[in-house]
Structure formats: C-alpha cells, structure tokens
Amino acid sequence: MSSESFQDFIGQPKSREGVEFRMVSAHGRQMERMLGLGVGPLAAGTVGLLILLKVIQRLRHKQNLQDKVVVITGASSGLGKECARVFHAAGARLILCGRDQKRLQEVVEELRNKTYGKIQTYSPCTVTFDLSNTSRVSSAAEEILKCHGHVDVLINNAGISYRGNILDTHVSVQRDVMETNYFGPVALTQAILPSMVDRRSGHIVVISSVQGKISIPYRSAYSASKHATQAYFDCLRAEVDRFGLQVSVISPGYIRTNLSINAVTGDGSKYGVMDKTTAKGRDPEDVARAVLKAVCHKQKDVVLAGLLPTAAVYLRTLWPALYFRLMASRVTKEQRLKEE
C-alpha cells in the first residue's frame, strides 16, 4: 500500500470522527441547555405530583368515624378521657371501659350534653372491669359486644407505669405490670377479634410507648411490657391483614398525665411523684388527636416523641454500643445526684 493511500486510509476515519465528535458535542450542549432550563420546573412538578397523589391517597383511605363503635379502655382519666372527648366529637358511638364506674359515669355526663354543629353525637355506654384480671376480660368483651352488636375500633389505652431499681424489685411487681400492660390488652383484643374477622372490618389500636422501642434505666417492668406489646401487635398486624383489619401502635413519649404519680415501685407501693419529664410532657389532648388521626388515616406505627427520644430509637439500631454506653452513664449520673 502506498504512503498516500495509507494516509487516505487513516485520514478519512479521522475526519469522520472529528465531524461526528463535533456533532455529538453540539448535540450534548443543546441537551444540557434544554435540561438546564427544564430541571427546576420538572423537579418541582414531580414533587407537586407526588404530594397530590399522597393527598388523594389519604382522602381515599380516610375513615369517617360518624356512627362507628369505638371502645376505649382506661377512659376515666388521662389520655383515655381525652380520647373519649375527641372521638365523641367525631360522632362515634363510644363504649368507655375502666375500673371505676363512678368516674366513668362522670365522663359520660360530661359528654352527653355536648354538641358539635351538624355532627350527630351519642351518649356513651360503659363497661366496668379491671384489665389486669384477665379471667374477667372475656365476660367484659361479651358486655361490650352487646352494646351495639359489634366493634369498629378498639383502643387499648389502659396501663400502669413503674419506677424502680431491678435489684429492689420483686418479681411479683414485674408480673403485675405485665398483666395490666400486656396480658390485659392481649386478652381483650383476642376476645373482640373474632367478631371483627367475621365482619371483615375493624381497627385495633394499642397505646404503647417510645419505651417499647428503647429501654431506659429504672423502667424495667414498664419497658418490658411495652416491648412485648409492640411485638405482639406487630405480629397481629401481619396476621389479620388478609381479613382487611387495621392495627395501629401509638408510641408516645412523656404525656402530661398522672401516670408517674400512679406508677408502682419495686415493692408494689405507689410512686406518688409527678416526674419533671412527665410534667413537661405532651398535652394529652394533642396525643388524643394523634390517635384519632392514626385511626382516620389507618396509620400503622406512630412515634410521638421529641428529637432526642426519636434519635435514640435510631441510635439503638444503628450504633447499639454507643446507646448502651449512654444509658450506663445516665445511671451513674442519677446515682451521683441521689448521693448529693
């Protein structure tokens, strides 16, 4: 092959490559300009569309509570009483449960004469029983079902707290807390559940705690009962999904109620103190409205806690060694304060 023909041979591709390269570059710059002009509006439009779809989805799945039968345990005080108020205002047919009939009746009298515009309200029913007496729960469930023939929403709210050192706590106290906070709600849920399955309709709510996700010192019995509650209702949610039933676990942080005053100690006596953290806790009305929202929008797992407790939930999962170190240092700090 001659040198000229060789040059022609290697030169032509170079020329074509150069032309193609310039064409590709020009096309690329044109695409960049088009993208540069359109990325902002495109991104904004995409976000707007996603928000719109989310709103539509929420509206489609929003449950109307007018005339729905709602059972609330621990309804005579605290969060249970606030739940009674907000669900009554939503037009629900309430069945209020608790240990003290007189206090339950006071709540009924308060709600009976309240009106909310065009919303039809109803005088609540009451069923008195001690949730920690699981042998009584079955007959209580029968009374509950006789009120309106079925239950649409069961809110397991009743519970007891605990303050104490494990070394000074009798195992009977651990068992008593579990009876009220875990076995009681489980027994009531399982007594009501078959009727919901038969109707292929129902929503079960349990008021747990952020301490059902993380544990802090001097709350062993309480945290253990709430961890068990979280696990049980997570399993329940999966098992009843095929029947169209909903399960919501609500995990608040501190709520401004008498929970700490009524807490038990290691020997079973009343704690009798309003903790500073409890006194500065969330307004129970705000928590009750969050429970209402969870039911209306069929939310599965709701954490109602501040920044630090929420961060601790993630820290326990992502960096457990650091979390354990922080909890140990908390014990040391509290012991030092007691000694001072």
TrEMBL record:
The chain crosses the membrane at residues 34-53. CDD domains: 11beta-HSD1_like_SDR_c (cd05332). Gene3D superfamilies: NAD(P)-binding Rossmann-like Domain (3.40.50.720). One of its GO terms (cellular component) is membrane. InterPro entries: KR_dom, NAD(P)-bd_dom_sf, Sc_DH/Rdtase_CS, SDR_fam. Residues 68-258 form the Ketoreductase domain. Pfam families: adh_short. GO terms for molecular function: oxidoreductase activity, acting on the CH-OH group of donors, NAD or NADP as acceptor. GO terms for biological process: lipid metabolic process. It comes from the Eukaryota. Keywords: Membrane, NAD, NADP, Oxidoreductase, Transmembrane, Transmembrane helix. NCBIfam families: PRK06181.1 (NF004825). Belongs to the short-chain dehydrogenases/reductases (SDR) family. PANTHER family: DEHYDROGENASE/REDUCTASE SDR FAMILY MEMBER 7B, DEHYDROGENASE_REDUCTASE SDR FAMILY MEMBER 7B. Putative oxidoreductase. This is Dehydrogenase/reductase SDR family member 7B. It comes from Carassius auratus.
